[in-house]
Structure prediction request, 377 residues.
Amino acid sequence: MVSRAEPSLSGRWWWSIDRVILSALVALMVSGVVLLMAGGPPVAERLGLSTFHFVNRQAAYLVLALAVFVGVSFLTPRQVRRLALLIFTVSLAMVVATLYLGVEVKGARRWLTLGPIGSIQPSEFLKPAFVVLAAWAFAEGTRRPDLPGTWIAFLLLPATIAPLVLQPDFGQTMLVTLVWAGLFFVAGLHWFWVLGLGGAGAVGILIAYQLVPHVRARIERFMDKGSGDTFQIDTALESFAQGGWLGKGPGEGTVKRILPDAHTDFIFAVTAEEFGIVVCILLVMLFALIVLRALFVAQKAEDPFIRLAVTGLALLFGIQAAINMMVNLHMMPAKGMTLPFISYGGSSLISLAIGTGFMLALTRKRPRAVDFGRFRN
Prediction:
């Protein structure tokens, strides 16, 4: 056990870190590997790969993610901002590059092949960096009205989502926009702007429905099952029905063998079939614990940047998880959104490690600055 008086960097880190968030995140990472052992093998066998191909790769990615996660959590708020700016700049450039050099998968260009590194999805890394920079801009606009912080935050949104729309990746676009709107609201800006943004979002969805066949097809399939192929979502719902409250048991699932993307987008349905709805509820509670704890710590922060950044990162994490689970339950149209730390994917895992590492770094306990001016008289 590390003593509170331990002067080393690791000792100071241990006693300043929020151990509730840390414990919940580690539990989620371990759960991800266990649950992927249910969803990964059937997909690997269908593709002619070794049975535990995805499990082994996820475990290797997790080792790297843990190193990134812990390393980022040591940063100071200033270092978090600087690293976010670097990641945002590089990721945005790579997202633009996917429009010309990206690998086309299911009609979208979201992946870049980087030689021996393999394929990477730059938009995953863009999200946490965008949240930190938007929070920084909003905080500066609130703290120093003479600086155009709010206008910078306004410009960040279209600059970020424009290349995402062109890929097209409407799931990530919606996620980024929702988090930005949440930051806008928490920053205390006028309700007039909040309502205006809501109206603009509704118009954007309408335009996408009218002009983008892919979006129209997904919305129509959601509203009316008879309008198209609903095999994916029907199979996912069958997984919940087959699993019941307690599940069939590890390795006993059968619906997962025909469920597309059982290791990524629909791992929550696989979890329901093999481990039951009870375990799904426990997962939801684990996600809720992380988000609510982060929001609780954020509201006590005196620094506007820390308050906004932690809020935004918590929203990013929570909304992404909610979208994935709602799609599995047919509560919203299908989106290519991973379940944080549970779904398979190297880019997603490293991106989440960066985002949650930022969250831990910003929620660490730090000594309050003392205003010595009040003692002069």
Residues 370-377 have pLDDT under 50 and may be disordered. DSSP finds 13 helices and three strands in the chain. The CA atoms of residues 134 and 153 lie 5 Å apart. Strands lie at 103-105, 108-113, 119-120.
